[in-house]
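Worked problem 6 (solution included).
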Amino acid sequence: MQELNVDAIMEDLSWIKEFVEPATEIEVSLEKGKSPTGIEYPVVTVRITGTTDENLGHMIGVQGQHLFSLQHILNLLLNKKYTSDEDDAVRLRVNLDIGDYRYAKSSAVERVALSRADDARILGDEIELEPMSSYDRMIVHSVLSKFDDIRTESRGEGPQRRVVIIPTAEEDLGTVVPEHEVETDELEDEAE
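Solution. The predicted structure is:
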């Protein structure tokens, strides 16, 4: 197992240059991530940019499928080289972005989530989003988790899995007292 550093990773990724035009740049950064249970792990971010994004389209693929496949391969290769096979070994994570596709896609998913959350609030009904990847669903859940007046859940199976945005009842928020909890004296006072 070798020591993890940016220069070594750049050398490991040099084979990618064979598949792209010479003006393509590969940037690598190394950061620390933290799981919900508090375990720290290394995060390798690989960013591939070119003179024009259309030249990188074949690496992104339809709806990012090539990008996600390449990210999976990079995860396997780098984990094999830089982590041990022990069950309790901390695995590194690789985030790959090609031609800022992920950034643009994340921004678009966030905008849709916020807009559809407004629809759920106004209509007072559940709003079902289109089926999306687990990564996109995670973005929706994360973006909308900061609001108390809605909640999200995933429904469906496999490629049909989608996020449902559910407005939270005012009673659940504690802003309205349900009628059955209002004392009868208060109701009589209001009637007069």
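Discussion: The mean pLDDT is 82.
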